[in-house]
Amino acid sequence: MTIPNIIRSWILLVPLIPSIFVSVFVLYHLLSNRALRKGLNNHVIILLLSSGLIEEITDVSWYVHFYRTGTLLSSTNEFCYTWVLFSAIMFSSIGIQMSWASIERHIIIFYPNLLSTMIKRCLFHYLPMAICILWPTIFYLIMLLILPCNTAFNYNQRLCGRYTCVTNTPGIPLFDSIAHYILPAFVTVFFSVALLARVLYSRYRIRGRIDWRNYKKMACQLLPISALYILLQLPPMTMYGVYSAGLPRTVAASYYSDSIFFNYWVILFTPFASLVSLPDLGTKCRNLFCFWRKRRAVQPATEMTRRNINQTVTALPVVQ
């Protein structure tokens, strides 16, 4: 049984509002602090949160309006092109960024020499992040704007029915499902779990024992993100790939419609994982809500904060 549209609108709206505020909050503190802003491990987080914020303000918000009213925000061809492009580019880009973030953490922690010079940083840091944005943009611009598409605009369907320009092209749907959704999800889960295992093994080999309390925070951040991708993204994207391979779309159609809808929860809940890992989260929250109280400056605490920031090595989310 397919979830009614009015319930879908509330399922998206309830986490959407706090997710936007949390994204702005985390981005502000990452960009306003020079040490955090310059840290290589934080660049992919800033890119990920910025992309997620754009996705929430545009695509997710337009979905909420569509599910609530049954009509588009604007019944024009221009809006249809804008919506389908933002939806396709930003959603797939965020998944690819997440997969690269899980890989880059291994480079930062275990292979720091690959980032020791500006040329190496350009090759192994800045270039991959640029590709995460440029590749989906080029691919979907070609598929949705340049190549001819006979699908008419339908103002009563989500995305105006224009994503069929991708799904109806022979061979493209299977490539789209694997390259942009299934593979990034597998990469994120595999490298996140592998990072946790490598860190625990390295600590155990050096110290001869494991104090689990030192790694509890890391586990609580990595495993839920991996679980989100396993439970919310892999099943519908696997179905998308199977449909593209020839399975009739009438098979498990209701399940596919509902499961692909919950994909947006991965984007909506990512800012909260980043918030938990924000350095000195308690202090920042107290400063935000108790800004009128006079605070005493403590120099040693500032020095320890800078030292902790310099020791932060993981890329997504930030782990102290």
Comma- or semicolon-separated keywords:
320 residues; Rhopdopsin 7-helix transmembrane proteins; disordered C terminus
Structure report:
The chain contains twelve helices and no strands. Helix 1 (5-32) packs parallel to helix 10 and helix 4 packs antiparallel against helix 5. The protein starts with a helix and ends in a 10-residue tail after the last helix. The protein has helices at residues 5-32, 34-38, 40-69, 77-110, 118-146, 164-167, 172-207, 216-245, 253-261, 264-276, 281-289, 299-310. It has one domain (5-284, 302-310): Rhopdopsin 7-helix transmembrane proteins (Up-down Bundle). It has 320 residues and is mostly helical.
Write the layout of secondary structure elements.
Blueprint: H1 5-32, H2 34-38, H3 40-69, H4 77-110, H5 118-146, H6 164-167, H7 172-207, H8 216-245, H9 253-261, H10 264-276, H11 281-289, H12 299-310
Q: Tell me about the largest β-sheet.
A: none
Overall morphology: globular
CATH topology: Rhopdopsin 7-helix transmembrane proteins
Classification by helices and strands: mainly alpha
Number of helices: 12
CATH architecture: Up-down Bundle
How many angstroms separate the termini? Answer: 44 Å
The strand count comes to: 0
Strand content: under 5%
The value of Rg in angstroms is 21 Å
> Quick one: CATH superfamily?
Rhodopsin 7-helix transmembrane proteins
The residue ranges in which pLDDT falls below 50 over 5 or more consecutive positions are 294-298, 301-305, 307-320
What is the number of independent domains? 1
Q: Give the integer mean of the pLDDT values.
A: 81
H/E series: HHHHHHHHHHHH
